[in-house]
Amino acid sequence: MKEYLYNLVFFPLPIIWFMFFIVILKLKRYSYVSFKIIFFLLFIMSIPITTYIIEYPLKANSNSYLKGDNISIVLVPTAGSYKDYNNNWHPSSTSILRAVIGETLAIKLNTTLIISGGDLQKSNISEALLVSKMINQDAILDHDSKNTSDTVINLKYIIEENNITMEHPILLVTSPIHNLRASMTLKSYGYNVKNFNQKLNKKYSIIDFIPSSKSFIYLNNALYEYIGILKYILNGHIKLNSFYR
């Protein structure tokens, strides 16, 4: 069901379906105008500046970590794994990047590092374990969480089992576009959270107004996050009333 939904909403499939019905129903009187609209949409969506605008609400966060902030734990959710030609499993480059940043911050802040990621590929090896082999610092590993909501729910038990005192915020280290969904979920479960954000002060150039094939990848990644936020609101993992207390 999930894949069918993605095939309907992820770009440029909505436009392809629209074109398909125009052709199959032989709506000649609408064809010229429709194809002009389609071309315009494809052009706009392929421009990097459009993607930056769509991504911005996901990346921008007023609760960013600042140097000198006190932190109780550094939390790193993983982001996938893959199997090589020899059937050996490896963490994704995104997972490694998050873990390395998290390790650096945990050492600098002299605090606990938690890496969360279960087995999504039926490999019997958790993503948390795979990532932990890429860093030098000891970390508490959450082998059970398979998504963001699992990570937040299981965090309570990890904190209790390891007698961690939560006097200060959690420092969340994840991908920039995942910041909003993850931090909103943590806040909904009563946690105080700071986001490790990359600087958003981008300098624009003429290249940002020229169509790029990568724009569709970034666009769909952002769309995935917006759909994820909506889904979490509907199933109760994100509680909007918790932000107005």
SS field, number of helical segments: 9
Strand adjacency order, main sheet = 5-4-1-6-7
According to DSSP, the number of beta strands is 7
| Cα-based radius of gyration, to the nearest Å | 21 Å
String of helices and strands:
HHHHEEEHEHEHEHEH
Determine the strand fraction and express it as a percent band. Answer: 5-15%
pLDDT averaged over residues: 87
Distance between the termini: 36 Å
Q: Note the main sheet.
A: 5 strands, parallel
Structural class label: alpha/beta
Low-confidence stretches: none
Could you estimate the helical fraction of the residues in percent? 40-55%
Can you tell me the overall shape? elongated
Explain how this protein is built.
This protein is of the alpha/beta class and 245 residues long. 49% of the residues lie in helices and 10% in strands. The protein has nine helices and seven strands, in the order H-H-H-H-E-E-E-H-E-H-E-H-E-H-E-H. It has helices at 2-9, 13-24, 28-45, 48-59, 93-109, 127-132, 148-161, 179-188, 214-235; strands at 73-77, 81-83, 89-91, 112-116, 140-142, 170-172, 193-195. A five-stranded parallel β-sheet has the order 5-4-1-6-7, sandwiched between helices. The chain has a two-stranded antiparallel ribbon with strand order 2-3. Helix 2 (13-24) packs antiparallel against helix 3 and helix 4 runs parallel beside helix 9. The two termini are 36 Å apart. The model has no long low-confidence stretch (mean pLDDT 87).
